[in-house]
Specification:
Elements (H helix, E strand, L loop, with lengths): L16 E11 L3 E7 L10 E2 L1 E4 L6 H13 L6 E10 L4 E11 L8 E2 L2 E7 L12 H10 L7 E7 L5 E5 L2
Parallel strand pairs: 1-6, 5-9
Antiparallel strand pairs: 1-2, 1-4, 2-3, 2-8, 5-6, 7-8, 9-10
Length: 171
């Protein structure tokens, strides 16, 4: 048996199987780059979120994040820092594991529109006035407070009894 055989890795129905995704926030001293979801998106149409998406087979986490930034905003050659991980409990056997990155820019880079939506530089002080993806109201302050040299934060997102969600940070 090989190390890639699910049977040797202890894969069972009681343990998560995860869909790995990246979520990237580029910032200047006063702005954050968010993506307004395209009107035809299945999830979060018209809502603001970070850049990112699925990690494709054969990619590592960092290169997937860099690819997504280039595809969704047209920005290449940016230095990213892993600042957090979030386990999203979907209530099913398969969850979502987010790898959250932050990139620091001195000034706003020009952005392009993509099929995923329109990237926009938003004033950090005004971001709460935008229609954000629900968990961003809790996650984004943690991302914006993170600086290189700080520990990576870890969180879990799960549905609550009222049909909303709950974010729990481990640190």
């Amino acid at each position: 048996m090989s190390h890639t055989d699910p049977n040797t890795q202890g894969v069972t129905d009681e343990r998560y199987r995860v869909i790995p995704r990246t979520l990237v926030f580029l910032t200047t001293p006063t702005r954050v780059l968010l993506l307004k979801g395209a009107a035809n998106k299945r999830l979060w149409a018209g809502r603001y979120n970070g850049l990112g998406g699925h990690i494709e087979r054969g990619e590592d986490v960092l290169h997937a994040a860099l690819r997504e930034v280039e595809e969704e905003a047209g920005i290449a050659q940016v230095h990213l820092h892993l600042c957090g991980t979030v386990m999203v409990d979907t209530g099913m056997a398969t969850g979502v594991l987010l790898f959250i990155f932050r990139g620091f820019l001195e000034e706003m880079a020009p952005v392009t529109e993509s099929q995923e939506g329109k990237a926009e530089w938003i004033l950090i002080d005004e971001v709460v006035n935008y229609p954000l993806v629900d968990d961003l109201f809790v996650l984004l302050p943690r991302v914006l407070a993170w600086e290189p040299g700080h520990p990576v934060f870890h969180a879990r997102v799960a549905a609550d009894e009222g049909g909303g969600f709950r974010v729990q940070f481990s640190n």
